[in-house]
Fold these 2 entries.
Entry 1:
Amino acid sequence: MPYGPSVPHMFIVVFLIMLPIYLKTKDPVLAWQSGLVWCLVIGVIVLLGAFVGPTVRKYTPRAAMLGTLAGISIAFISMRPAFLGWEDPWLFMLSLTIVLVSWMAGIRLPFGLPGGLAAVVLGTVLAWLAKLVHVDELMQPVEVVSALGQFGLRLPYPSSDFVKALHDIGPLLVTAVPLGIYNFTEGMNNVESAAAAGDDYSLRQILLADGTGAIVGAVLGSPFPPAVYIGHPGWKPALRLSRWGWPSSALPGSSITAWHCSAVVLCSPG
């Protein structure tokens, strides 16, 4: 199943955990260590969920689980980018048109290019061209060069840095516990979504891998817990029908492994 760093959790740990601690203590290392503890707690909760998840799933109606996924998808995945797109509506509409033609109308693009990839590439090229002819100031070359200057391969190593923030774990639990439960239930709902599409996965194996990924990531220095991604029924046909399916799945997987240092969940339907 698709799996990787959770974007909502990324914003939460940065702005609700690490930033307040940094503003209070002026110690960036302590803020980072607190983020590691937060991620570790979420991983432990997801691991515990692996043992109660199958029972909870058994007595929860499918409509309730899939309805939750639909609400999350509309509110967080669709609506926010749609609103932000109107900051540059001409560029937004051109990219959106490609996505609608490819995904909604089912029209195959030249060379079998995935609609999402084509939309991103076209949008990026047009944004830079608009900058060159002084039509739009969306792209900032100086900032891009500065960001590329930070690019590099920096291999992680196991550390016990999170232990130094355990003494003040109480405030972290206020958000870590509910979001850990959310991670557990989202994983359960995604497994049910895959089952509705005809793919039966072991919920316990999925949650064990998910929780282990968060714990391993925390030990290796990442405060960003992973999650099983929404949209398995859509990912599968998109990758199967495109000749770009293998690189489309391999590149994000390798990036996740290198950045978060946790293996991509590759459980086979059983």
Entry 2:
Amino acid sequence: MKLLLWAGIIFAVIWILRSKKSSAKVDTPATSQTPLANAEAMLSCAHCKIHFPASEAVFDSSHAAFCSVEHRALHAVH
């Protein structure tokens, strides 16, 4: 009987600690907006249609975006 009482007390303590731990996570403010502030625009290559960061873009005279100089040259041939 004592063993059952101790098991119940230990279970209750663990349950209370876990519920406090999970409620502490809910109270913290979400910081999901920080990465979006540093997000960079993505462009699509006019030749292969792959998406890449705008800072890596190579443009031709008609302002079409390409992922590399090679794709700009290949697109000009077609």
